[in-house]
Amino acid sequence: MVTRTRGGLALDLLVGLMALTALSFVVRERVLPWIEDLSIVDPGDLVRDRLFLEDASTGDSIPWNPGAPTLLVVFRSTCPACQRAVPTWVELASAGPWQTTAVGLEPAEDAARYAGTHLPLARAAVPRDIDAFVKRFRIQVVPTTLVIDREGRLAARHAGPLEASDVQELRRLVAPSKP
């Protein structure tokens, strides 16, 4: 039987440590981002699970049930572009077949006050984790309008104030299909 020298053992340990370091880099740089990307919802993807929203007034978890279209209007009360989007959001909330939720990316009190004043037909909500919500739905700016269809798929994501043509398109996406 061959006896290992200290130098041979040290070299084996060094090679093992290098292999472990390389593996940790692969996991951190490739595997973990891939796993995080699985949670991102793009138009056409199923939302799959809860929206992780809380009622801005009560702090209660807001249940979400596929089967009814959902309109999510994402805002900040200090955003001038959100203020310009309000009339269109109000029109959508009152004329669409959806449940409307106003999602504030800010403290719950501010979101509740703003939604109560400007979006009275919408339920005021805040994400449990703003960063996770923003990342999950790829929200880069406010205002952002999200539409989830009856099947639970993200039908549309629109960044910025809506134009009349955008409103027509959103309505078309959730209108019941005619046989």
Summarize the topology.
Blueprint: H1 6-38, E1 53-55, E2 70-75, H2 80-95, E3 99-104, H3 108-118, E4 123-127, H4 130-136, E5 144-148, E6 154-159, H5 164-174
Descriptive notes:
There is one protein chain. By secondary structure, the chain is an alpha/beta fold. A six-stranded mixed beta sheet has the order 1-4-3-2-5-6. Helix 2 links the parallel strand 2 and strand 3. The mean pLDDT is 89. The protein contains five helices and six strands, in the order H-E-E-H-E-H-E-H-E-E-H.
Write a brief structural summary:
44% of the residues lie in helices and 17% in strands. With 179 residues, the protein is of the alpha/beta class.
Distance between the ends: 80 Å
Shape: elongated
Oligomer kind: single chain
Report the C-alpha radius of gyration, rounded: 23 Å
Number of helices: 5
Average pLDDT level: 89
Global structural class: alpha/beta
Strand percent estimate = 15-25%
User: Which range best describes the helical content: under 10%, 10-25%, 25-40%, 40-55%, 55-70% or over 70%?
Assistant: 40-55%
What are the secondary-structure elements, in order, as H or E? HEEHEHEHEEH
Uncertain spans:
none
Largest sheet entry:
6 strands, mixed
Q: Total strand count, please?
A: 6
Major sheet strand order: 1-4-3-2-5-6
What key attributes describe this structure?
about 180 residues, elongated
